[in-house]
Design brief:
Blueprint: H1 28-31, H2 37-54, E1 60-64, H3 72-88, H4 93-108, H5 110-126, E2 135-138, H6 144-154, E3 159-164, E4 181-184, H7 187-196, E5 198-203, H8 208-222, E6 230-234, H9 236-242, H10 245-250, E7 262-265, H11 268-279
Parallel strand pairs: 1-2, 1-5, 2-3, 3-4, 5-6, 6-7
Helix pairs in contact: 2-7, 3-4, 5-6, 5-11
């Protein structure tokens, strides 16, 4: 006599089974062990690579910039709010400082629009007839990153977001192409993916993260580890005030020729023209 289905013993469910009886690739606790770090690193390198191949991503342009710089209207509202708070507490030095910062951020907010326009120009020029060249890739967050992903979305083009899991909450911006919205655990693997297909890095005003990626790329260029990336700094006044490049030359810490590893641009079109000339892109 056959057994009724209710009499059959079902295999243990992974969430209730002892670890030894769970398939290795389904055992989350096992995969989180320190000894499995090399496996996790390999998977994190391979998964985005395979997906980008499937999406036919041939080349990219990396856009970096502050997550804290927002579009001009939002920056104007933040300044108004800071001024209102300072008016209520005119002798509070923290409020006065907040107003000063909000004013500077409003001055820098123009770069949100420049980043958006740059992405729109590149995406509409290079993503035609099914080609996916010079696809915009960002860190996936708000601010300048959002602006760059948004510019691609404006022209119905693909763009990539390489998000990083952080102790504090970070949500990917809504303009990343859903199929190209990646999440990373390891900064090192994320950095590799920024540059694997990169033909250019465009750096807008930003903080530690922007500087980290900028100097790593300049180091790779200086040491010959990469030759295919052209670096464009948007906003000469900002970058010239932030970094005393000539001091590095005068102290013999870099060669005078190292100053040729990057270029300046003020407008979206100027940035794209530099990249197009460097890479031999026709009809720009």
């Amino acid at each position: 006599m056959g057994l009724d289905s209710s009499d059959r013993t079902s295999p243990p469910r992974p969430e209730t089974a002892p670890s030894s009886s769970i398939l290795a690739h389904q055992d989350q606790a096992f995969l989180e062990r320190d000894e499995l770090r090399p496996i996790r690193v390999g998977l994190e390198l391979l998964k985005p690579e395979l997906i980008q191949r499937e999406e036919n991503i041939q080349s990219t342009i990396v856009v970096f910039g502050s997550a804290r710089l927002h579009e001009p209207a939002a920056a104007a509202r933040a300044l108004h709010q800071a001024e209102a708070e300072a008016a209520r507490m005119p002798h509070d030095p923290i409020c006065r400082q907040a107003v000063a910062i909000a004013k500077r951020q409003l001055e820098l907010a123009k770069y949100y629009d420049v980043a958006r326009e740059f992405s729109r120009i590149v995406s509409s020029t290079c993503q035609v007839d099914g080609h996916c060249d010079y696809v915009i890739v960002t860190g996936g967050g708000p601010g300048i990153m959002e602006a760059a992903n948004r510019g691609a979305a404006d022209v119905n083009a693909k763009s990539i977001g390489l998000n990083i899991t952080l102790p504090h909450e970070q949500q990917p911006n809504p303009y990343i192409s859903p199929a190209l919205n990646f999440e990373f655990r390891y900064f090192a693997i994320r950095k590799m993916h920024f540059l694997i297909r990169a033909r250019a890095l465009v750096a807008f005003p930003g903080g530690f993260g922007t500087l980290d990626e900028l100097f790593e790329t300049l180091t790779l260029l200086q040491t010959g580890k990469t030759e295919s990336v052209v670096v464009v700094l948007v906003g000469r006044a900002f970058w010239g005030r932030l970094i005393n490049w000539q001091l590095l030359v005068d102290c013999g810490l870099i060669a005078p020729s190292d100053l040729q590893l990057f270029h300046y641009a003020e407008t979206a079109q100027e940035a794209w023209d530099l990249i197009a000339r460097h890479n031999g892109v026709p009809n720009t």
